[in-house]
Amino acid sequence: SNPLRPRNLNRVGYAASTSPGYIKKKFGRRRITMNRNKLQLGFAEKKNILADLNDQQKSAVAHKTRPLLIIAGAGTGKTAVITRRIAYIIEQKWARPSEILALTFTEKAAAEMEQRVDELVPYGYTDMWISTFHAFGDRFLRDYAINLGLPANFKVLTATEQAIFLRQNLFAFDLNYYRPIADPLSHIQELLTHFSRLKDELIEPGEYLALVESLKLKAKSKEEKIEYEKTLELAKAYQRYQELMIQSGNLDFGDQIFLTYKLLKENKKVLKECREKFKYILVDEFQDTNFAQNELVKLIAGRTGNITVVGDDDQSIYRFRGAAISNILDFKKFYKNAKELVLNQNYRSSQEILNSSYKLIQHNNPDRLEVQNNINKKLITKKHGPSPELLYCDSLSCEADKVVAKIGELKKEKKYKNNDFAILVRANSQAEPFIQSLNMAGIPSIFSGASGLYSQPEIKMLVAFLKCL
């Protein structure tokens, strides 16, 4: 029960020291010293968790109870705030490590968060739940698989494996419009995307089917009746898809959230256990969460739970994946007693860049937190530099030529080297004109967005097929 007591010491290799009677081992920046009588654990260089934080960050880290909304602009140290808040909660003994749930959007962000927390707390503090939403759902479902009638060793299919599964079972579906005779496989990807969006909105197969059937009497014209038949076909296909997946012991990524929410919503005993287990919940990149993820967090936390969300509505770019910016905009409407903190001290950019970006984002008004919550989100910094320069071009190739010409000009005037420059593009496909222009100008470059052989769509498809054989 003592969180300072290390587990499984036998898994750590120890080497004999030259000092008689002692065994020492460096473990990262922590030092473990053992003798015959006692085990001493501590930091090699222990420092105050609140050190080097500004007043806004300290207030966020030291917040004890009730919901907390942290609006963190770009470069304001939000990851530092989350990780130090976790460490501070443990240090103040408000909760054990296993009673803290931290959720984020990507595996990379979760790994970084876990690493930073590990550097802040003494060795022996284990069992923290720091993961992506899907990894949390997967772990939860494996613990409670029996409650959903799932095998404990269920398999989560990748997008390619889903397509193969649907193709293999296509004629088990009652399809007409979406399985044309000329090309029966033409709508497989669209069907899977539709099913995924339904799960992102927490729409169950039976609920979808009942809703569609209730629209039958409203379909009067020929066009309306055709549209009704198409929608009914989709609803039946969604229901059949879920039946076949569960029967074969398979889940998709959407199920990891969808089924976790379903179990907690329908099983009060499991929900009570979950709420008692997690005393503190923290969510990073909250503006990128979809409806299902937000509802799951709200269900676990309850209306008065110790939930902390960190996000910035101005950085919401994943709506095409189902992200709902309304989650962060409506946070204070759901949690009436929520505290709101704004981090606007920037540590990344110059004030000139911040001023330009702030001027640009005003075009999103009035659908921004700054307007709706009457707060000041303008970022400030002590750094200064040249003002951003805007180049006007009428085509992508013209843009690439101008950028390369500008690089050549700066190299000549400022004596810059090639590795002093970086070109950022919205998508990897837009990099090709710049690469060609750089080659024409004799400027060597490295394209960091190039994916490896095993990341190519054709190779991923081939590997998925081989797994099925």
Report, as a whole number of angstroms, the end-to-end distance.
48 Å
| CATH hierarchy: architecture of the largest domain | 3-Layer(aba) Sandwich
Name of the CATH superfamily of the largest domain: P-loop containing nucleotide triphosphate hydrolases
The 3D shape can be described as: globular
Portion of residues in helices? 40-55%
With strands numbered from the N-terminus, the spatial order across the biggest sheet is 7-6-10-11-5-12
Low-confidence stretches: 1-46
Structural class: alpha/beta
Which CATH top level class of the largest domain fits?
Answer: Alpha Beta
**Major beta sheet, specifics?**
6 strands, parallel
Content of β-strand: 5-15%
Total separate domains: 4
Average pLDDT over all residues: 86
Number of strands: 12
Radius of gyration: 27 Å
Series of H and E elements: EEEEHEHEHEHEHHHHEHHEHEHHEHHHHH
Give a verbal description of the structure.
The chain has 469 residues and is α/β, with parallel strands linked by helices. The protein has helices spanning 55-61, 78-91, 107-120, 133-143, 159-168, 188-200, 205-213, 222-247, 253-266, 268-277, 291-301, 326-329, 331-334, 351-361, 369-372, 396-414, 432-440, 457-468; strands at 15-16, 23-27, 30-34, 39-43, 68-72, 100-104, 129-132, 155-156, 250-251, 280-283, 307-311, 339-343. Helix content is 43%, strand content 10%. α4 (133-143) crosses α9 (253-266), α6 (188-200) packs parallel to α9 and α9 (253-266) packs parallel to α11 (291-301). Residues 51-350 form the UvrD-like helicase ATP-binding domain. This is DNA 3'-5' helicase.
